[in-house]
Design brief:
29% helix, single chain, alpha/beta, 6 helices, 7-stranded mixed beta sheet
């Protein structure tokens, strides 16, 4: 789903051990799972389902092992998206990703400050109001699972969490030291 190699390199850079696979058995045997994604919500969900990886993500979430969703990989964790209303998401997080307003440049490509709304173990080493890199046209609304917010035409959830599931609308692998700090915290959680 687009950003596999850059995510893998970033996690390796911070000391994580990475296996990029589309094999459900290999993925289920891992200690942590990253769900990357670039592109269209419907295509990503179709890709996950055709390969049996939707069951892997759901199984990981149920197992208590760490899950990290990135960009469209975050959006697929929700109930759905306006980008493909006929396609159901995984439903691990409540809500729908909505299109950013037409009165701002879409897709939103660039750096935004993210404000942490609640403390989370993965964000402890990341300064308040750190800047992260975004590339997207859809985003979930701010809701009860939101841990970080930003704005581009409207306020939206830039990071969300529920139990062992953490996800970002931005790309940590393209976000310099702040993004690497998130991946380092995730790699440490996986290794613990």
């Amino acid at each position: 789903m687009g950003n596999l190699r850059s995510v893998a390199r970033a996690i390796e850079h911070v000391g994580g051990s990475v296996l990029v696979t589309v094999d459900p058995g290999e993925a289920l045997a891992a200690e942590g799972l990253v769900v990357p994604g670039v592109g269209h919500f419907g295509a990503c969900m179709t890709n996950l389902r055709e390969r049996g990886l939707d069951v892997v993500v759901e199984g990981f979430a149920a197992s208590g092992r760490p899950v990290f969703g990135v960009c469209v990989g975050m959006q697929v964790l929700f109930d759905g998206s306006e980008e493909a209303p006929e396609v159901a998401g995984l439903g691990l997080l409540a809500g729908t990703s909505r299109r950013l307003p037409e009165d701002v440049k879409v897709p939103h490509m660039g750096w935004n400050t993210v404000g942490w709304t609640v403390e989370h173990p993965l964000t402890r080493a990341v300064p308040a109001d750190a800047r992260f890199y975004f590339v997207h046209s859809f985003a979930p609304d701010v809701q009860g699972q939101t841990v970080g917010v930003t704005e581009h035409g409207r306020r939206f959830a830039a990071a969300v969490a529920r139990d062992n599931v953490f996800a970002t609308q931005f790309h940590p692998e393209k976000s310099g030291e702040a993004g690497l700090a998130l991946y380092a915290a995730f790699a440490a959680e996986v290794a613990a």
